Amino acid sequence: EPKRNTAFGSVGRRIPYRILHVINQDGKSLGDMHRADALKLMDQHNLKLVLLKENVEPPVYKLMTGQQIHEEQLRRAEKKKASPKPGMYIKELSFSSAIAKNDLETKTKQIAQWIDKKYHVKVTIRQAK
Questions:
Q1: What residues make up the domain containing 43?
Q2: For the chain, which has fewer Cβ within 10 Å, the N-terminal or C-terminal residue?
Q3: Do 64 and 96 lie in a common domain?
């Protein structure tokens, strides 16, 4: 049974599948091939095999350079940071730039309460006519 939810990166020579669908570093499909042939190709071109899709038949692997793997890891980390985590609430508050002083103070208190409760707060200010 292969490990689930592994981090994105080179799998090295530990490939649990016999038949793989291989994609080269330019994104072109090389078709289905045996694990030994994929490892030979990896060694010839001095590249690394990376698992892209595990839940398809056959699983999809891509030949990548170390730099490509690093860039993809950074991209995925940024994407994960940007997406809200489960159980996290985002509160949004919108008001006009011509807001009265007492209304602004009330909304400021509301924002402070939300921040104390560990909510993420998004404030939008619309320009007055």
A1: 19-82
A2: N
A3: no
The answer to the question of residue 8 being in a domain is no
Structure tokens at 102: 């007492």
Query: Is residue 9 situated within a structural domain?
Result: no
Residue 20: which residues within 8 A CB-CB, separation 6 or more?
A: 32, 33, 34, 35, 38, 58, 59, 60, 61
* pTM of the complete model: 0.56
* Helices of type H across the chain: 35-45, 66-82, 101-116
**Which residues are within 8 A (CB) of 38 and not within 5 positions of it... i.e. 6 or more apart?**
15, 20, 22, 49, 61
Q: Are 70 and 52 in contact (CB under 8 A)?
A: no
Q: Do 98 and 45 share a structural domain? A: no
- C-alpha–C-alpha distance, residues 28 and 25, integer Å: 7
